[in-house]
Amino acid sequence: MKNIYKRVLVLLFLGAIFTPVFAAGNKNQYVSVTSAAVKAKASQFSASVGTLKYGDVVTVIKVEKGWSNITSSDGKITGWLPNASLTAKKLVVEVESKKKTSANAKELALAGKGFDKNFEKDFAAQNNVSFSQVDKVETFSANEKETIAFIKEGNLNAGEE
Amino acid sequence: MKKSAKFISLFLMTAFVICSDSFSLSFGDVLQKAVQQDNLQKTLSNVEKVKDTVSTINRAAEPITPIDAYEIGRTVSASVLEIYPLYNSPKATAYLNKICKALALNSDVPSIYKDYCVGILNSEEINALSTSGGHIFISLGLLKCCNSEDAVAAVIAHELAHIQLEHSVNAIKASRKTEALTQTTKTAADLTNDYADIAKEDKEIFTSLTYLNEAALDKLLETGYPKEQEYKADELALTIMARTGYDPNAMIDMLNVLNELHSKESGDDKGWKKTHPKPTDRIKKVKASVSKNKLSGTDKSAREARFKTNLSGIVK
Questions:
Q1: Rounded CA separation B237/B9 (Å)
Q2: Of the candidates A34, A103, A114, which has its C-beta nearest B274's C-beta?
Q3: Who's near B242: CB < 8 A, 6+ residues apart?
Q4: Residue of B nearest to A103 (CA)
Q5: Domain ranges for chain A
Q6: pLDDT tens digit sequence for A137-151
Q7: pTM of the model
Q8: What are phi and psi of B119, to 5 degrees?
Q9: Using one digit for the tens of pLDDT, what is the confidence trace for A65-88?
Q10: Nearest CA to CA, how far is A77 from chain B (Å)?
Q11: Domain A28-87 - what CATH class?
């Protein structure tokens, strides 16, 4: 009996320490952004041929200079996505979009990288922060069409070095 | 040996001990003693301790998904905005967001889970912050230090680089690993302390490892990111700027302004002074990177008028 306890304890512990997750070499990837515009060419400034959403599965045909040539799982969309918009890790799409963060106060303070002395203290003190101002900031994002006009007006580059 | 070097080497030793087979065997020995020498109640209590430790280790092993990173970013942003109100200028805000989008479109990470967004904080303090959710905050004080659109682009590109290099997500991952190490050594220390026949020195090793890991996390919290990450953010920012057509030398102009302020102000505890390397150190590295990679921008005259119009009332 004692032997069983011992084995359970040791296995529990060793299992936790030595359970690496090995990702098998898989051509399937998952879209990691809410809305990914699939491009006709490997350039952000090329025409869009369709849109995929977070968690969608794609098959990667080839990879070139930071871009992946993909086909959607239903075969309807074929084009290019930035590698940064794809992940090999399976993503679970959660219905509730406003789920609470899994990070604790200390970790959030870390994510705030010591912005201000009081900032860290406030993290610990805050139980209910308001997200209304964050929602407001998120509406500030510029759209692509306006930005391309802005780029041209300012003699900036659109994809070419 | 320098104090910091000692600290790092001891920390690495801790990690090595935790990851080595010898540690797991000696931990197994401790557990074996728990079973051999004591009653069922004590064994069960030790099982609980090990279970808690296992759950912390599992948490450290879990990936931070794009949604997690976004939600963490939202919470950090909410807390920033509780302290600093937004500066209300739709014109200036829209201008900064277009600069940000132009940079993002020319970078390797044109979008993250949600779009990048920029907010101006109504604060004279000089600081900027980005979150893993793509939120970028720039204080009015920092904006006032900019003398061109290219200098504003340098500030935004630096923050964009922190996001794209996943610095805050990595800090959380590191803290979870540290927490797992701390708890592992603490459990080991608790268990070893239970038994009289374990050598005093062995008990002391486990106890000191516990304190060491806790100290590592606290140190990280106090000083922000390692300086090396700030240099890496500068380096990536320069590449993104050049690709977009912004003059990378504008980052040097910006840092020169910060350097003047740095030498005028006393104390090291103010926002960016506490969390960033000295501007002179950054300038050296930026200059080296610009010349090594032969980075340059396009003719900036087309951007001069709109900089003054969009930021009128803020910049000179």
A1: 32
A2: A114
A3: A161, B248, B293, B295, B296, B297
A4: B72
A5: 28-87, 105-153
A6: 999 999 999 999 999
A7: 0.73
A8: -125, 145
A9: 899 999 999 999 999 999 999 999
A10: 20
A11: mainly beta
